[in-house]
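User: structure tokens for this one?
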Amino acid sequence: MQKSASASSLGPGGLDLSQIFFKPIQNTSPPSPTKRHTKISVIGTGNVGMAIAQTILTQDLADELALVDAIPDKLRGEMLDLQHAAAFLPRTKILASTDYSVTVGSDLCIVTAGARQIAGESRLNLLQRNVAMFQGIIPPLAQYSPDAILMIVSNPVDVLTYVAWKLSGFPSNRVIGSGTNLDSSRFRFLIADHLDVNAQDVQAYIVGEHGDSSVALWSSISVGGVPVLSFLEKQQIPYEKDALEKIHKAVVESAYEVISLKGYTSWAIGYSAANLARSILRDQRKIHPVSVLANGFYGIGDGDVFLSLPAQLGRGGVLGVTNVHLTDEEAQRLRNSAKTISEVQSQLGL
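Assistant:
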């Protein structure tokens, strides 16, 4: 199941009209070998996967988009629905298949597929079912696109990014988890809302686990280049630590609130993943808090663990980790977050 039949073959006897519709010009040369054809594959066409696919299309990030899912009818329906919007979108070839061969030659593979939690099921059992699912997803992606960058969005994202790294055999710079990129966006929004400024003028990071043990880096927050906490101290404006923690708590709980209201999250993670894709494929070299192999950073050293750190992203994937100043308390919280993830990983037997 791939692209729907092309109208170019609607001539008599299946004549390919595209060959006679245009007259070729004379003395042509082949296309420049430096011209790059960009392909993105999205694995999983649920609410999150389709929000990502739709955002990739509207932002003109790929020449070719491949969709993969285990449910053929829904998959074909999603493909056709997107193809029917072709007149309103930048030209992108859209393919879909239950067979991973459709992803061949991808520059970026975004994995959103994951098992849903059953009532009464333990988090560990859910994680083990997701690991089993990844064993059927990651190896074929690595086989068909050995030079691709893997972006994991499925939750729990930090542990599954580690699983994807192990199963793919890829170098760690080419395996990235969406991590706290979205958490940090929520954080920036809440701070901007408090100060009545544009969120794009707020520099603020949530790092560590994409979950309850995440760490808000209050010491490095700035608005318009002005360090917020230092400014308050110099102006002798008192602030309460509890008030800061309430904002962080709101960040952690915001996803749960959206899920309780509409049943799932989709649009924000769609924009977040597309934002990461743009930085990677356009070699933007922007800083994003994403899940990376954290060993050796900020005193993290107990086994291989992926968690979110401010990382520079470009065409080679993770280009480096920013040396952000952390307070002793923030550094300890980050190490505690790493320990939390490591303890979960140790039960997987990988």
